[in-house]
Design brief:
Keywords: Cell membrane, Membrane, Protein transport, Translocation, Transmembrane, Transmembrane helix, Transport
Family: Belongs to the SecE/SEC61-gamma family.
Order of helices and strands: HHHHH
Helix content: over 70%
GO molecular function: protein transmembrane transporter activity
Strand content: under 5%
Pfam families: SecE
Number of domains: 2
Structural class: mainly alpha
Main location: membrane
Number of strands: 0
Radius of gyration: 27 Å
Distance between the termini: 66 Å
Amino acid sequence: MNSKIEHSKSAASGGDIVKYVGAALLVLAGLFVWFWFADQPRSAQLGAWASQWRALAVVVGLVAGGAVFMLTTKGRQTIEFLSESRFELRKVVWPTRQEAIRMTWVVVVVVIVLSLLLGGFDFVIQKLTQWFLGR
């Protein structure tokens, strides 16, 4: 097993907080460009490629914000978690196509049987309630 137990610090460092704010501002700047140039007069300023430029601004904002976030302590922990997850996924024994199809049919049959059973219970309870209230 490749996991480590570490107690995380409850308070983030000052540099990390600045990076969090910077990442959030970059994402918000990309979204601001998207909505600011949504008006027809402002959109005309960007030319014929207005929607593509707006989409590019959002993508650049998200990528830049994500890159700044990855420079923080939580970002490094996220990268470490993803690399460990990838390592663990290599250990997984994936089912063959035939096994997957067989298990899918088992799930479908169980769902049908349980839904019919629950529907039957519902019908019986409904009829008993109507009979009881009708007396």
